[in-house]
Amino acid sequence: MFDSLKDRFEKVFTSLRGKGKLTEEDVKLALREVRLALLEADVNYKVVKDFVERVRQRATGQEVLSSITPAQQVYAIVFEELLDLMGREVKPLSISPKPPTVYMMVGLQGSGKTTTAAKIALKMKRSHRPMLVACDLRRPAAVEQLRVLASTVGVPFVGPEEGETDPIRVARRALERCSETLVDLVIVDTAGRFQIDQELMQEVQDLKGAVNPHEVLLVVDSMTGQEAVSVASAFNDRLGLTGVVLTKLDGDARGGAALAIRAVTGTPVRLAGLGEKVDDLEVFDPNKMAQRILGMGDVMGLLERVQQATSEEDVERLSESIKRNRFTLEDMLIQLRQVQKMGPLEKVIEMLPIPGVSKALKDANVDPKRIKHMEAIILSMTPRERRNPEIIKGSRRRRIAQGSGTSVQMVNQLLHQYEQMKDLMKAFGKGPKRGFKVPPGLKGLFR
If you count Cβ atoms within 10 Å of the first and of the last residue's Cβ in the chain, which end, N or C, has fewer? Predict the structure, then answer.
């Protein structure tokens, strides 16, 4: 997501950094590229026009043009305007002071509404007792899908009784059951269509009046581009949305919906779906998103992943190894497993805040299977071999290759990568270097 937009912005600011002082013509040319980048990302034309004009007014001020670091100031202006565009504050879901809280999920068919309802239930389950309610009675598969998802995430489910066709009756029955089951959060999945029509709008409007939801959440497929803004506007006009959930942000969407929905509708993006799994949902953070768009990485997100993947015991052990300059294959195995726990490597790479590193590694095309092969090779070694790699000669290498289901060549590559990792750790200890390139010995990690 946002890859092409990020690349275009990087080129713009690279050209500005090469100039000692900026002229109005320099700013004009840069903003032309910014405008094209946003339009190619499928951002609404009016939003782009207003955004570029605000940046132009601030960037052509005398304070910026006469600054000794004008490129940095323009960079900061674009960053701040992106924040204003998406909303500066994180807007997590709220809870009604008088239970039960009701979340009503609305959206077009195929947007991921039913799956998102289950994802929210799992997320809120940590501090509440949610219930999933199937009110999409026009598509029988939707009821069964939600029933299965409720079982998967371990929350109560209420659906239509045999022959029941009125979603309002289903919703009211679910609310009546809350006191019996100690449920304090009801998540209502509503009907969708392939396109907006009067019948759909009337049904969800009647359902809203019946359940009086605390949050009305529109689920939007990020892949729909500018159409997502039109959908959000239509639902907002009829229902008064309180938030938007963007799905498929892990895909190849160009990102226009994330940038434009709030600007056009005034409705904040509350959550972002990052995958198909039920735990692939996070609170939408405009600050993190703006940082990633401008190639600044996502330091906080990276730290959160590292903390989740790393135990104190592993940290202490690795620190001790580095202090003694005794980095072994056992330490390398720990690091490989931590990397796997952090999630898809390409997503982790996007979070790297070091200029040039993210692009260099991403261009190398990460191959997660290589990590598994490396782990299998190390596990096929004896404890003595892991602690003393220098003893691994010809016959040992053949045995290790056979035991791990790999080849002698791959064992040789891993041992070479091990040596490179030791050198790389020393290099990073001295600080990041400009013009970062993937060390030749580590290219085996990539296709």
Answer: C
